[in-house]
Input
Amino acid sequence: MHSFINNQDNHIKRVIIVGGGTAGWMSAATLSRYLKNNRYEIILIESDDIGTVGVGEATIPQIQLFNKSLNIDEDDFIRKTHATFKLGIEFVNWGQKGDSYIHAFGSVGHDMESLPFYHYWLKLQKQGRSKDIGDYCLNTLASKKNKFMRSIDAGNSPLSNIAYAFHFDAGLYAKYLREYSEKLGVKRVEGKIVEVNLESSTGYIRAVTLASGEQVAGDLFIDCSGFQGLLIAQSLGVGYQNWSHWLPCDSAWAVPSQKLDPLPSYTRATAHSAGWQWRIPLQHRTGNGHVFSSKFMDEEEAKKILLKNIQGEKLAEPRLIKFVTGRRDKFWHKNCIAIGLASGFMEPLESTSIHLVQSALARIMAMFPHKKFNQDEIDSYNEQVGFEYEKIRDFLILHYKVTERNDSAFWNYCREMDIPPSLQQKINVFKANGHVFRFNNELFNEISWVEVMLGQRMTTEGYHPLVDVLPEEEFDRRMAQVKRVIDTAIDYMPSHAEYIEKTCKSTV
Ligand code: FAD
Output
C-alpha cells in the first residue's frame, strides 16, 4: 500500500508538447487518447509566426495502425485530408537513366515450400524467362494501371490482403488531429517560445517562457519544434550525427500542381542529375518536390529542373527547404523527448519520417515515465530508436549506392562512396545467393530490400538451393498459377479514381 501511494505521487501530471506540426499533433492525439483520465494535463504550444515545415505527404502502411489506434474512421480521414491511396513507390532513372521499378507494399508472388517466392523468381530470371519481379506483384501491376481497392474476402486471392498507405495533405492532417485532440481535452497555446527555463540543480526543463511573458511549466516535455530542436538541442545541448556523407541531399524545392488524371495509386521518385523529384497525387492537387545536393547543384538550376518536370500548371511559387540528414545523439534526454524533425531527418525517399513519429509515440506509451525518470529506461529508449534510424538509413543509402549511373559528379560520388559495414554486409549476402535477413524487427522487410536491390540492377550469383527440389514441370506449373491468380485479381480491380469516387471522395 505504501509503495502504491508513492507511485501515485510520482506520476507525471503535465505534459508540454512544443510544436504543432505533424509530429506535435500526432503526439497530442496519442497522449490525449491514452492518458485520458483527468490526472494528466496536455498542453501544446505552437507559433503561427514560425509555421510548420508544410511537407510530408506520403506514408507507409503502418500509418493505418496509427489511425486505428486513435479509432479514426478511415473514410472520414481520407475525405478531410484529401487523401489518396498509395500502393508503393515508382523509382525512375535510379539504376540507370531510362530504368523504372516499383518498390511495392505487401507481398510478391506466393511463398512455396517455406521459401520466399523471390528465390523461385531468381531461378526464372537465371533461365532468362522473366525480366521483372513486379510481374508477380499485385501492388506493382495495379500501380501501373492506376488501380486500387481495399482487401475483400477472396480466399487465397491476393485481393484478400492488399497493403496500402496514403498520400495526404499534411496541413489538413495536422488540423484533423488538432480537432481530435482538442475534443479530448488538449489545451492549445498560441505563442512563440523565447526562453527555456531549466532547473538549476538537475538541468531538467522546468518551464518554457512565451514572448507574452507567460511561463508554461511541465513535468515532461515533448520537443516537436522541427529541425532546430528548440529544447533537445538548443536548450539541452544534445548533439547531432551528420549523415550527409552517406545521404548527400540537403535541400528541396517543393511546389504544388494541378491534380492528375488518371489518378495514380503510387508515389513517383524520379532521379535527376544531383538528386530526385517526388510526385505525390492527392485528390485536389499534386505535391512535387526536387530533393537535391547543394554541393552538386545550385538552387536556381534545381528549381528549373523541378518546374520543367511537373505535370500540369503549378498552383503556387516553389518553396525552398534546407536540411541536414542525420539523427540526434540522444532522442530522450532528462525530461525531454524529441519527436519528428527535432529528432532527426533522413530525407523523404521512402516516406519514413511520419512513421518514425508514430513508432516513437508507440515506444513512449510503452515506456511512459514516472517523474523520477529512470536512466536505464531512457538509455533503452535511445538504443531502440537509434537502431530503427540506422536500419532505415542503410535502406536509403542503398538507393544511392547501388547504381550504374555515371552521368554526373553526384552519381559518381554516390556510386563510389564508403557505406556503413552493416549495409555492405547486406549487399554482399544478397549478391551471393539472394539471401536477405531482417534484423530485430527493422522497419523494411526482406521483400522491400529485394525489390530495391533488383530494381537498382543488382544481380545474384545463385538462388536458394532448395528451389531446385521442385521438379521442373511442377516449378513451371506453380509459377504460371501464381501469375494467373495475380492477373485475374488485377482485372477485377477498379481504377483508383473510381474507388475513391465511390467510397471516400473529398467534398472540396
Ligand atoms: P514542423 O512541421 O517544422 O513543426 C514545428 C512546429 O514547432 C511548428 O508548429 C512551429 O510553429 C513550432 N515551433 C518552432 N519553434 C517554436 C517556438 N520558438 N515557439 C513556439 N512554437 C515553435 N515525411 C513523410 O513521412 N513523408 C514524406 O513524404 C515526407 N516528405 C518530406 C519532404 C521534405 C522536403 C521534408 C523536409 C520532410 C518530409 N517529411 C516527410 C518529413 C515530415 O515533413 C515531418 O516528419 C513532419 O512534417 C513532422 O514535422 P515536425 O512536426 O517535426 O516539424
Observations:
- The chain has a mean pLDDT of 96.
- The first strand starts at residue 14 and ends at 18.
- The first helix runs from residue 2 to 9.
- Residues 105-161+408-498 form one domain.
